[in-house]
Amino acid sequence: MSHFLAPIFAPGFFQSEAVHIALAVGALVALVTGVVGVFTVVRGQSFAGEAFGDLGTAGGSGAYLVGVGTLWGFVLGNVIAAGAMEAIGVQRARGRDLATGTVLGAGIGLAALFLYLYTSEHSTTGATVTILFGSVFAISSTTIPLIVLLGALVLAIVLTIYRPLLLSSVNAEIASARGIPVRLIGALYLLALALAAALAAITIGTILSTALIVGPAASALRLTRRPLTALLSAACIGVGAMWLGIVLAYDSYRWPPVDQGWPVSFFVVTLVFVAYLLSGLPEAKRARRAQRRSAAPAPARPASPS
Amino acid sequence: MSSDGASASRDVLTVQGVSVRLSGRTILDRVSFRIAPGEFTGLIGSNGAGKTTLFRVILGLQAASAGRVLAEGRERARRHRAIGYVPQKFLFDPDVPLRARDLVGLGIDAQRLGMPRPSRSRRALVEEMLDAVDAARFADTRVGNLSGGEQQRILIAHALIARPRLLLLDEPLANLDLGSAQEVVALLARIAREQEIAVLISAHEINPLLPVMDRIVYLAAGRAASGATEEVVRPDVLSELYGHHVDVLHVHGRVLIVAGAGEDADLAGHEGVFPGAGFLS
Amino acid sequence: MFSGFMVNAWEVASIVAVVAGIVGFFTVMRGSAFAAHAIPNGSFAGAAGAGLVGVSTLVGLGVFSLGGALTIGLLGRRGRHDVATALALVAMLALGALFLSFSVEYAPEVYSLLFGEVLGISPNEIAPTAILGALCIVATAVLYRPLMLSSLLPEVGEARGISSFRMEMLFLAILALATTMTVPVVGTLLIFSLMIGAPAAARSFTDRPLVAMALSVAIALLAVWSAIAASYETNYPVGFFVGTISAGAYALGRAWAWRRRRRGPAADRPASPREPPRASARLYHPHMSDARTASDDDWAERAERRLAAAGRKRGGARRALLELLAGERCALTAVEIEQRLRTHEGRAVSRASIYRILDELEELALVQRVETGQAMVRYERVCEREEHHHHLVCDACGLVMPFSDPGLERAITSLSERVPLTVSEHEIVLHGACRDCAAAA
After folding, report:
1. Which end of chain C has a smaller Cβ tally under 10 Å, C or N?
2. Which residues does chain C have within 8 Å of residue B78's beta carbon, measured at their own beta carbons?
3. Average model confidence (pLDDT) across chain C
4. Total H helices, total E strands in chain C
5. Using only C-alpha atoms, what is the Rg of chain B?
6. Rounded to whole angstroms, how far apart are CA atoms A45 and B242?
7. C-alpha dist (Å) from residue C291 to A173, A186, B104
8. Could you give the CA distance from residue B105 to residue B130 in angstroms, rounded to a whole number?
9. 3-state secondary structure of C104
10. Are the C-beta atoms of B26 and B222 separated by less than 8 Å?
11. Taking residues C125-150, what's their average pLDDT?
12. Region A88-102 average pLDDT
């Protein structure tokens, strides 16, 4: 059996502790980001998700500077950023991108400063690459409890506010007519997104973290219109991409051009992107069959409550 | 010039048997009508009757499954300078740095490349259009800060400045209060009369247009009846159009179109007088 | 500060600022902030790859930023635009991570690509930067009018033969071009803050499009010049200063716009005698549901203008109440307002003040009373552009729900014609038991 699977699973794959951690943590993070991501896409807040990724850079490099774990930096940086965005008015559609962008620009400036200070103090530049392009293989076993805790917290938030969140994401007007505190729900959701982005950042690096949040969710929403099915399929796509990415990255140690392995984040993100492209096929086929496609600019509709 | 016969080339717009089917659903079914220069035509229909689709076909933004549209006797209305278009209710962002007069000026030659060269004739033309829609008072205000009725006028001026022969307005009266709606209708009627510009205006409410309409195109479930108002707004014509019995009541110069005794739920939702279809929650 | 290598820095940075100011004007106008972030950021991969293959960084940047722009445009045509942008971005960055892992000891260059290295610019970079910059400006000037119309009123543009899709692609291409030339100077991450901060700030200061564009260039120039000077003095990275100064300019612009609004309608526009304080009857319009936030903001803005015009001072309590009402769809009692202020905004306002403020607002026709026949009077905001609605009241539990119906409005309009009264307003309250109460009974 193992002999038969040898071309797929390189020797030592199932024995390595780093792989065990990567598989477990990766699955947890992909699950959390998949669930949160569905709402990110429905609410049209991909840019905020992306901003959290990059703002995590400031938090992570700040953490390096003072010498605490990077995950703490990601979490703290993102929560502060979520507060700033909420205060400037991310909940309003108008000017939302500008509010996000301004916070993002200032945050990146800060990241530049922190990284510069760290580099000039320690005369090593490793921090830049580690933070920006992190690796799921590099997660130490001591951070696992914190990751599990944060993951559970995010899931708890999202599942608690699931129904009001879904309604206010699809139609804020109806939601507030029903007495749902739309703004509070939005703020709680932003917090969940900030934490999920921090988790994604520790797994595949700040600069790529958006992929885990937006990618699986966007693919799932192209495949199904039911919210619960979308949550489940987003989680599945995310976990699948994560695991397959880990396997490929482990295999790639035997690949050219250098004998040091391709980055796992590259595989994960590429697989997510491919999943998104493939998820458009059923609809494209349907559209071609309908043949009068040119007429209706039919954008992929987000899930509607069933 | 045209091979389409004398009558078609005299008309500003000729719609001949236009059908549109989208993913198996028939949106428009053999719609035909024509508009002569300077004529004021109302395109009346409830929401979902196909008004916007018909406009898109006329503007060349939507291919018809069958039939054709001639603007001044020629096909391909798109890029046709003869048609000015005022889109459905549009709220400008108050952050956009653009004055009302800038938006009107953009109407002169927006499709041209290169920067606009300021000139006296340009300025005079913009002033003239602002006066024509009675908008000189707020010419230097940001468009985003104008009220809905004021933005509507600016958009009309924006369309008029290109000297079209036909002005197409998509639901311009929706969500204007009655006073503003009457002013906009009066303005359009004056433009049609004085400048010989034909006006085609879509609305789901017939009454504000009654005093000024030369001709009506009544759209229901994708099919159209057209002609003079009194020829179309009749129980027999409308009942056939709807496929249900429909009553037309005349009350103090206003028209009320109501579903008849054996009314259908759908119909009541569109045109009935009983509440029930429009719940917000 | 103005010697040797610094002269190059000043020159190149100035070119970059001019281009960022001009291209950024349309970026903000079109709401393409995300694309303006994604294209430069993703083009980082190109720079990393170029080092690997051994071609010039500029070529790598150019290929990847153009490729990214095309991907965003094409994917965005069928799917959600923000999703397409995010995915195109991460796909490029993933390639960047791959290229990076192939090359050894690349970290310092990663840093300078991401955060810029304006002080290290060599003289032979000036010519390509200037040429690409000129190309960007010329392209923007050539497309000025159609791009403007397409950004403002895409449907009208389409009707005039200006394809929105083509405009989007052309604009993204310009953005890619601007990226290619600016990235080596300010870095992939920071060109963005220059391209958003400066034009977003500029449009708070003027109503004229061309003046706003010029102002945007001026602010961008000011930002890079002071950033270089500060960086030279402190040795801190230029990117830090560019980011902070741009954000500061934006904040300043918002503050200015806020002050201008506060000065009231007289300063902003001539007083309009026609604008009715209270619309007599509003036609039902189902399309407004998408524009909810816009009309909410309208109400809040109008309220502030009118209060300022009436010479009322701004109080914290009134501000909180305005905010609350702006977000409320339906009528509230004073007690409910008090409770919500406490729970949502964490603010205790005495009931007496609430009634006083509500009276003021009613006087200015900003809120209206709704008599629901319950023990307490309810208040709701008066909206001009928004759907006119009536109320359903459950007599058992006191629930109030808004409803609207076009047929009802027409019937009332028609009735109004026949009664011996000039009808100026109407409100309808239907009493009964809500579904839950009916079920419980």
Report:
1. C
2. 159, 161
3. 76
4. 18, 6
5. 20
6. 43
7. 10, 18, 24
8. 10
9. coil
10. yes
11. 89
12. 68
Residue whose C-alpha is closest to residue C81's, from C140, C44, C33: C33
Rounded to 10 degrees, the C-alpha dihedral C67/C70/C74/C79 comes to: 70
Which of B134-138, B248-252, C114-118 holds the top average pLDDT?
B134-138
| DSSP, res C3 | S
The alpha carbon of residue A115 is apart from the nearest alpha carbon of chain C, in Å, by 8
Beta carbons of A251 and A258 less than 8 angstroms apart: no
- The ipTM (two decimal places) reads 0.77
With contact defined as beta carbons under 8 Å apart, do C121 and C9 qualify?
Answer: yes
Residue the block writes with tokens 């209708």: B185
Report the side by side order of strands in the sheet with C367-370: C332-333, C378-381, C367-370
Which residues, in sequence order, are bridge partners of residue B258?
B247
Tens digit of each residue's pLDDT (9 = 90 or more) over B156-208:
898 888 888 889 998 888 767 777 788 888 888 888 888 888 999 998 888 88
Give the integer Cα–Cα distance in Å for A270 and A279: 14
d(CA C110, CA C107): 5
pLDDT of res. C211: 92
A295: nearest CB among B22, B93, B281: B22
- Could you tell me which chain B residue has the CA closest to the CA of C253? B95
Instruction: State pLDDT tens for residues A184-217.
Output: 888 899 899 999 988 888 888 877 788 888 889 9
CB spacing of A295 vs B281 below 8 angstroms: no
Q: How confident is the model at residue C213 (pLDDT cuts 50, 70, 90)?
A: very high
Contact check, Cβ <8 Å, B95/A178: no
**Which residue type sits at B112?**
R
DSSP A258-304: -TT---HHHHHHHHHHHHHHHHTHHHHHHHHHH--GGG---PPPPP-
Share of chain C above pLDDT 90, in %: 10
Measured distance CA(B45)–CA(B206) in Å, rounded:
9
User: How many residues would you count in chain B?
Assistant: 281
Task: State the CB neighbour count (10 A cutoff) for residue A229.
Answer: 15
SS3 label, residue B45: coil
pLDDT 10s digits, C340-392: 777 776 777 777 777 778 877 777 777 877 766 555 677 777 765 445 677 77
User: Is residue A108 a contact partner of residue A207, using CB atoms and an 8 Å limit?
Assistant: no
Q: What is the reported pLDDT for C87?
A: 85
Is residue A115 a contact partner of residue A127, using CB atoms and an 8 Å limit? yes
Categorize the per-residue pLDDT at A127 as very low, low, confident or very high, splitting at 50, 70 and 90. Answer: low
pLDDT bracket for residue C272 (50, 70, 90)? very low
C86 contacts in chain A (CB < 8 Å): 46-47, 49-50, 210-211, 214-215
Q: What is the dihedral of CA B217, B221, B222, B224, to 10 degrees?
A: -30
Q: Could you tell me the two tokens for C370?
A: 């709704």
Cβ neighbors of A226 (< 8 A, separation 6 or more) are: A303, A306
pLDDT band at B4 (very low <50, low <70, confident <90, very high): very low
Phi, psi angle pair for C42, to nearest 5°: -70, -30
Tokens of C87: 């995915």
Q: What is the CA angle C360-C362-C365, rounded to 5?
A: 115
Separation of alpha carbons C365 and C352, rounded Å: 20
Q: Find the range with the poorest average confidence among A45-49, A297-301, C165-169, C300-304.
A: A297-301
For residue A199, give the nearest of A134, A128, A273 by alpha carbon: A134
Selection from A185, A216, A210 nearest residue A198 by Cα: A210
User: Residue holding tokens 């933004």?
Assistant: B61
Q: Do B278 and C406 touch (CB under 8 A)?
A: yes
